[in-house]
Write a structure and sequence with these properties.
CATH architecture of one domain: 2-Layer Sandwich
Order of helices and strands: HEEEH
Radius of gyration: 16 Å
CATH superfamily of one domain: Phosphorylase Kinase, domain 1
Strand order of the largest sheet: 1-2-3
Largest sheet: 3 strands, antiparallel
Number of strands: 3
Helix content: 25-40%
Strand content: 15-25%
Structural class: alpha+beta
């Protein structure tokens, strides 16, 4: 049984993919222009909360529930590498498991 963290495992997988010549995430991903108007059906974007290496997080109002939410968009969108997509999906799975009321969901 391995005691390594999932982050370390993902890094190991990425290094193995690179040495095998497979597609890997690049670090020169273009983030959306902060002045660009973002439109997501069913949501009103209020403001940008944070920009990071993986993407951008926006505060938004979900119209159907009138609830404030945070929406994270992958920087490269549909052009993201398979590694970046898997990492993003894993983050979604982990956040969905959180049970604290103050935790983001």
């Amino acid at each position: 049984m391995s005691t390594e963290s999932p982050i370390h495992d993902e890094a190991s997988e990425e290094r193995a993919a690179q040495s095998a010549g497979q597609e890997t995430e690049t670090t020169d991903t273009q983030l959306p222009d902060p002045k660009a108007r973002i439109a997501i059906e069913g949501y009103d974007i209020i403001r940008e909360l944070h920009r990071g290496g993986q993407g951008v997080v926006y505060e938004a109002l979900q119209r159907s529930t009138k609830r404030k939410v945070a929406i994270k968009l992958l920087a490269a969108g549909r052009y993201a590498s398979k590694t970046a997509q898997k990492r993003f999906e894993r983050e979604i799975e982990l956040v969905a498991q959180l049970t604290r009321p103050s935790a983001g969901r």
